[in-house]
Structure formats: C-alpha cells, structure tokens
Write a structure and sequence with these properties.
This protein is mainly beta. The protein has one domain. The chain is 12% helix and 45% strand. The chain has two helices and ten strands. The strands form two sheets. A six-stranded antiparallel beta sheet has the order 1-9-10-5-4-6, with helices on one face. It has a four-stranded antiparallel beta sheet with strand order 2-3-8-7. A hairpin with a 2-residue loop joins strand 9 and strand 10.
Length: 107
C-alpha cells in the first residue's frame, strides 16, 4: 500500500492503524519496535517487553499512541538513507508476518 508521511515537528511520522498494529502484535503495553535498514528498505519489528535488554544497543523506538492507532516517528537521517524526500515522495509499506517493511514507492 502507498501512503504519504505526515510532518511531525522536525521529523516525519508514519501512522499505523489499529488492524495493522494487531497484525504486528503491538498492544498498548508493548509498543517498542526495532528498526533495521537493508537495501533502502526499513524493517520494523516489535520488541517484546521481555526482550528489551537484548535490544538496548540497537535502534529501537517507542511508538506514539494516536487514538486507536500508533505513530512511528522517522528521523530525517533515516529517510535520507532510504532516499525518501517526504515532501514529494510516497512510501510503500507491506507486512510480512510480524515485520512491517517501508520503502520509497515506485513512481
């Protein structure tokens, strides 16, 4: 699916709707995710609370609760690595198992 990022202060935000959050296994009590980048694709995976210590040296972010959905704040530095200009480019996202992938949408 394709989508635009929303401006959020000096960063950009990707909104994760409730059905997508459920597919990823996110809950109001477990909403920390690990971000990994490979080949200009951002992989977002839930980090269970029981494993937070194992992920402490990796790039992890807490999602922001937005009504019944979540917001993933994506720093500009990550968007630059992904070659995404959030003011003009759309992103494409997909879910494979419990991993959300985000990349620049094909034009």
């Amino acid at each position: 699916m394709k989508k635009h990022l929303a401006a959020y202060g000096n960063t950009w935000q990707f909104y994760i709707s409730k059905p997508i959050a459920q597919m990823l296994g996110l809950t109001v009590n477990e909403y920390t995710v690990n971000l990994t980048i490979e080949n200009k694709i951002l992989y977002v995976k839930k980090v269970p609370n029981s494993q937070l210590n194992e992920y402490q040296d990796l790039l992890c972010k807490k999602l922001i609760k937005r009504n019944s959905s979540f917001g993933l704040t994506i720093p500009v530095a990550i968007l630059e690595v992904l070659d995404i200009n959030p003011e003009k480019d759309q992103i494409e996202f997909d879910i494979n198992g419990q991993i959300l992938t985000i990349k620049k949408a094909e034009e």
